Amino acid sequence: MLELSGIESGYGETQVLHGLSLEAQQGRVLAILGRNGAGKSTTLKTIMGLLPLKSGKIVFEGKPIARQPYDVAKSGIAYVPETRDIFPSLTVRENLEIAAKRFGGAAPEWTMERVLDLFPRLGERMDNGGTQLSGGEQQMLAIARGLLMNPRLLILDEPTEGLAPIIVKLIHDKLQDLKAAGLPMIIVEQNFGFATSLADDVVVVGKGQAVWTGSAEEIRADEAAQHTWLGV
Amino acid sequence: MAHDLGFWTLQALNALQLSMLLFLLSIGLTVIFGLMHFVNLAHGSLYALGAYFAASLAAIGGYWMGFFLAPVAVAGVGILLYSGLIRRMRKSGPMAQVLVTFGLIFVMLDLTRIFWGDLALAIDVPTLFAGRVELLGIEYPAYRLFIIGLGLAIFAALAFVLGRTQIGAMIRAGVDNDAMASCLGINVERLFFIVFCVGCALAGLAGVVAAPLLSVTPDMGLQILIPTLIVIVIGGLGSLKGAIAGSLIYGFVQTFGAVLAPQLASVLIYALLAAVLVIKPVGLFPAKG
């Protein structure tokens, strides 16, 4: 459903992606793995239109993707950034409400109720300021906010970073629920176990290119690839 | 005089009136800056334009015609500025924005000279507020009380919109992090346009209400620019709380400075500005904590 072919992108003069290609399939979870600085987050930011696409093509649901974040969001992609980016001057409720918009279509699949069912913890914190939350709660809020956009593809950047093991487990279970519900996802992750237990497909990125592509089972079995590309 | 309660009341009301005028000007500028990091030095020119429009409209249909139509006309000029200039300069960085909007001040200055001439214009206080009102033991001009009331009403309205409505939450989200707000499908550019127009209208409104108190001259926009910038820097960028706090501080320091220490009055506010910059460089209540 999302296809990147030969994309080049980066920050200002510094090019990070050198002709990266990958494909995310309908109804499946794709994990993007790789060492620090390989270009994983850059890939996601380029998809979202936060970084300019210098060359190459990104096609979403058969159409070239828009180049402004607002239009990318409108086309049905929700983004949960590495830094979570909860709005500090908004309450938890407001953080959720401003995302709860639908761009046409039938009754929304994800409502406030359903999102709070998934993360009951947020329900208790609705009137707190966005930054009064713990790291784990902020991550839940960032995911909940993305879901309220009723996306057809959810993109997560390092969802477990800096979280306690028990919260990592909780986030894992929630994402597993979303996967079971058929929501396609792309997950960038350093935590190999977390990523490969959740994903169907895996792309390993090294030096701005896709260096290994296969299924999650394959990479779990391929110790040589793990060693070469991930240093596991 | 200093032991006379009436004297203090009078000065406090004068300070409040000046504060409200500055608030009307600074709120638009600070939110525009906070939302889009756009520096519009020509904001003061819109204030002058509001006063001129009001003077012309008042000559046709009286004060109230100017009061209601001049801010709309200034917002119209804002739309022209936005579509002709500002939208193109959104990504060009603060230096270019400062230079272009600074140049715009002089363009507007000469345009007002061409259309209205160099002589100062005067507008009469509307008859409704022509008299004086007995208040806290002193007689105070009703029109100045009207300005105070108007400023407070607009503060309350903006506090409601920014604090309690969906669009207000979106504006605050845009000020916090415009990139993330866009990623949630919020059209930040359109929000900016709306905020810009409202900011222009409020600057125009400030010009309208100031016109009967001051004489309307081409350089009035330039004169108000520095106080407005000081208000924003003291208050902190991007926030309503900062704009009102900065305005009150400026109004009171300026007014009481002028009567209590006239020799120091012109330096006092700059000293305060310097002190704020040393102690809290981001201002007292910046939107981005």
Automatic annotation (TrEMBL), chain A:
<keyword id="KW-0813">Transport</keyword>
<feature type="domain" description="ABC transporter">
    <location>
        <begin position="2"/>
        <end position="232"/>
    </location>
</feature>
<keyword id="KW-0547">Nucleotide-binding</keyword>
<dbReference type="InterPro" id="IPR003439">
    <property type="entry name" value="ABC_transporter-like_ATP-bd"/>
</dbReference>
<dbReference type="GO" id="GO:0005524">
    <property type="term" value="F:ATP binding"/>
</dbReference>
<keyword id="KW-0029">Amino-acid transport</keyword>
<comment type="similarity">
    <text>Belongs to the ABC transporter superfamily.</text>
</comment>
<dbReference type="InterPro" id="IPR017871">
    <property type="entry name" value="ABC_transporter-like_CS"/>
</dbReference>
<protein>
    <submittedName>
        <fullName>ABC transporter ATP-binding protein</fullName>
    </submittedName>
</protein>
<dbReference type="InterPro" id="IPR027417">
    <property type="entry name" value="P-loop_NTPase"/>
</dbReference>
<dbReference type="Pfam" id="PF00005">
    <property type="entry name" value="ABC_tran"/>
</dbReference>
<dbReference type="InterPro" id="IPR003593">
    <property type="entry name" value="AAA+_ATPase"/>
</dbReference>
<dbReference type="InterPro" id="IPR052156">
    <property type="entry name" value="BCAA_Transport_ATP-bd_LivF"/>
</dbReference>
<keyword id="KW-0067">ATP-binding</keyword>
Automatic annotation (TrEMBL), chain B:
<keyword id="KW-0813">Transport</keyword>
<feature type="transmembrane region" description="Helical">
    <location>
        <begin position="191"/>
        <end position="214"/>
    </location>
</feature>
<comment type="similarity">
    <text>Belongs to the binding-protein-dependent transport system permease family. LivHM subfamily.</text>
</comment>
<feature type="transmembrane region" description="Helical">
    <location>
        <begin position="220"/>
        <end position="240"/>
    </location>
</feature>
<feature type="transmembrane region" description="Helical">
    <location>
        <begin position="98"/>
        <end position="123"/>
    </location>
</feature>
<dbReference type="Pfam" id="PF02653">
    <property type="entry name" value="BPD_transp_2"/>
</dbReference>
<keyword id="KW-0472">Membrane</keyword>
<keyword id="KW-0029">Amino-acid transport</keyword>
<keyword id="KW-1133">Transmembrane helix</keyword>
<dbReference type="InterPro" id="IPR052157">
    <property type="entry name" value="BCAA_transport_permease"/>
</dbReference>
<feature type="transmembrane region" description="Helical">
    <location>
        <begin position="20"/>
        <end position="39"/>
    </location>
</feature>
<feature type="transmembrane region" description="Helical">
    <location>
        <begin position="252"/>
        <end position="279"/>
    </location>
</feature>
<feature type="transmembrane region" description="Helical">
    <location>
        <begin position="143"/>
        <end position="162"/>
    </location>
</feature>
<protein>
    <submittedName>
        <fullName>Branched-chain amino acid ABC transporter permease</fullName>
    </submittedName>
</protein>
<keyword id="KW-1003">Cell membrane</keyword>
<keyword id="KW-0812">Transmembrane</keyword>
<feature type="transmembrane region" description="Helical">
    <location>
        <begin position="70"/>
        <end position="86"/>
    </location>
</feature>
<dbReference type="InterPro" id="IPR001851">
    <property type="entry name" value="ABC_transp_permease"/>
</dbReference>
